[in-house]
Amino acid sequence: MKRIILASASPRRKELLENLGLAFEVEPSESEEIPDAALEPHEVVKRLSLEKAEAVARKQRNAIIIAADTIGFLDGMILGKPSNEDEARRMLRLLSGRTHLVITGFTILDADRGKRLSRIVETKVYIKPLDSEEINAYVQSGEPMDKAGAYAIQGLGSIIVERIEGDYYNVVGLPLSALADGLKEFGVDIWREQLNRR
User: Which end of the chain is more exposed for a tag (fewer CB within 10 A), N or C?
Assistant: First the structure.
């Protein structure tokens, strides 16, 4: 059985993958996450996830690499991680009372065979109207600072989300259902793994 490697430093992605009961290692990718402004947002996340997977695969053997990239998208703008508190406030003001897309691209790559699969999942997220006091309090909590779109649906940010359409785990950063389907093509069956653990 090949090793499974998560090419991400995200504690959220690590926790989500652990929820599937898979044995895996973590090796954060050293590739730079620089979106190409000339690309559509779906292509941006697809390319970045592929670059992350390839960077780790170059150093590994007998391994299946999983990498992902998540962005928010609204009004033709990509909403990545805010670089400072002012940018976080700007993003939250932009999202307030509106609907945006959360788009995740993920790549599964067999380091030996070079076989690869990249898929994109999107979720529509409805944010409640927010006043300045609420935005400031949320930014002061520190939670928005390392999150795409400046909020975490699984944390304090849950109270600013009115509802979603689509995969919740995609908004957290790793669409588990689509990922499990993709892993089957690499000989990794989540249900079989569960049975083998018994």
Answer: C
